[in-house]
Hints:
597 residues, D-amino Acid Aminotransferase, Chain A, domain 1
Amino acid sequence: xxxxxxFMVQGPYPIIRHLLRARxxxxxxxxxxxxxLEQHRGDQNKERLKTRPCNGGGGQGExxxxxxxxxxxxxxxxxxxxxxxxxxxxxxxxxxQCDDDPNGIHDLMSYLVRDRLPNFIWTNFLEATDHELLQQxxxxxxxxxVEAFTTKEGLCLxxxxxxxxxxxxxxxxFPRCYRLGTMDEQEAFIEDFRLTAARSLLKLALEKxxxxxxxxxxxxxxxxxxxxxxxxxxxxxxxxxxxxxxPELVDEALEVCKQHLGVLQHQDIDRGTPSPCRTxxxxxxxxxxxxxxxxxxxxxxxxxxxxxxxxxxLRHLAEQLPQLGMEGKLNVWILxxxxxxxxxxxxxxxxxxxxxxxxxxxxxxLCSPGIVCTxxxxxxxxxxxxxxxxxxxxxxxxxxKYVEQLLTIFGTKFDIRQWFVVTDWKPLTVWFYQDCxxxxxxxxxxxxxxxxxxxxCNVSVQKWYKMSPDQDPxxxxxxxxxxxxxxxxxxQLGQADAWHQVLVPGMKAAILNAxxxxxxxxxxxKGSFELYGADFLVGEDCQPWLLEINSCPTMRPSxxxxxxxxxxxxxxxxxxxLDRKNNPTCSIGAFELIYKE
Length: 597
C-alpha cells in the first residue's frame, strides 16, 4: 500500500496480471458478483453492442469497476470492445492460466486492499473507471474522446481537417472516405464515384490500345466461389455484353476528365460551376455502359487519337491525384459501419460461411450489417438512404475507396496490424512498436468476386472461413505472419529495402498525421496512456495505406506468432509506462520514440 502498488485488471488480460504480480503488485480483484455480471452476455446486450460507437469515453452506462467500492451492476452497459466477448469457458480458462493461486494468497491480499484505490488500472474500456475518484498519480490505460480517430467516421472527419492543421495531404496515405449520413458528403461521394468511373474507363480503353475492340475479362457464373458474392449486375441495361456501346462513351469520359483536370489545376476560377461536368452528360446512362465494360466484358473501340488523349490525360491526372494508381479500374468501394471496428457484423455463425439469404428482395450486400464491397453507385445510395433520417446518428455509415492495386502474398490479400502507444497528448508523445504482424484472407484475392473471405483480413472475420481449395499452400494455415517473415518475403521479391525505407516510414507518418488531426478533441489526462492498433494495406509499390486505428486492440492470440507478439507488447508497454518512471534508462523492448512535441 505504501509503495502504491495496487492494480486492477478488467477484461481478458492474463499477461498483464501475471507481469504486475511478478513486480510485487497486489491486485484488487473485481468481486465475484461483479465477475459474474461482467461475464453475462445475453442476446439483448449483444444486440446493444452492435449499435454503439465502439471507441471513446461516452460515459453511457454504469462503470463496471468503481475503484473505491464494490462492482456495480451491469446495467445495460454497452461494451466498446473491438472484438466480441469470448465464450465464458474461454475467459475462465484464461483466468485459470494466470490465477495460479492454489493457496489463495492472491485472494487474501486482494481482500486486504478491497477498500483501497488501485494505482494502476488496465481495462478494455474507459467507462470502467470512476474518474471522480482518480488521483493525479493513478495510471489508466485509456484517454477520453478518442473516437475522433478510433472510429471510422471520426477518422474520416478528422483527416478531412488535416490540411488545416499540418502541411500534409491525407490522400497520400488514407483512401478517400465519405460519411454517408451527411448530405454534403454523400453528394461529394456521388461526384467522386462518377469521376472515378470516367478515369477507369480510360484505363480500360488503354489496356489493349488501337482500333480493335478492347474487352475486359468476363468471369463466368460457374467460376464463382462458394459463399456469398457482392458482385451485382446492372438493372437498367438491356444490351448484351457483346453488343456495341454508344460511340460517344470514350469521348464523354475524355471530356469529363479534361474538365476535372482543369479544376485540379485551378483553371476553373471564372467558371460558375464548382464541380466538373455535373450535367454535361447523362450520368445514369454513362454508368450503366461503364458497368458493361468493366464488369460484363462489353466491347470497347478506341481510335489512335483517343489513345493518345487517354495517355496524356491520365499522365496529367496522376500528377494531381495521389490515389490514381491505387484506385485501379473497376471502381470498387467499401461500405463500413462508421462506429464499429474489427469487422463486427461481417460474418456470423460457425464453420464455413454460406450465402446470406435475400431478405425482402434486397440483395445480401444491402441487408448485411457489416462491411460490404460494391461496384455500383445505386447500391451505396440505397443503403445510405436508410440512414439519413433525423433520428439516425449522423455518420452511421462511411464509404471508402477500395485499394484495388495492392500487394498480395501468394495471390492472397493481407493487412498489417501495427501497435503504437501514446503516453502524453500535451506534449504529444508517441511510441512506435517495431514488431507487428500480417493477417491473411482465407480465399485467393480477386476483384471479380467480392466475398468477405477474399477481402476482409480481420481475424474476427476470417475465423469463420475454411481455407479455399484454390488457396496457395504456402499461405500459413493460421493466416498470420510476423513482420520478419514479411521482410524475408520482400527480399525474395528483390525489395529487401522496402520495409525500412518505404513501409515503416509511411506507417509512422500516417499514424502521426492521424493523431495530430484529432489532438484537440481528445480528453487529455496526465498519468494516462493508451495502446492502439493501426491497420494498414500495402499497395503494389509497397506504400502503406491506413485503414483504421483501434483502441483496445485484441490481445487474445490466434496463432503462435501473435501469442508471442501480444505477450511481448504487453510486457514492453508496462516497461514503458511503469518501469521507465523510476528508471529512465531501463529497457523498453521494441518500442521506439518517434515523436515528442
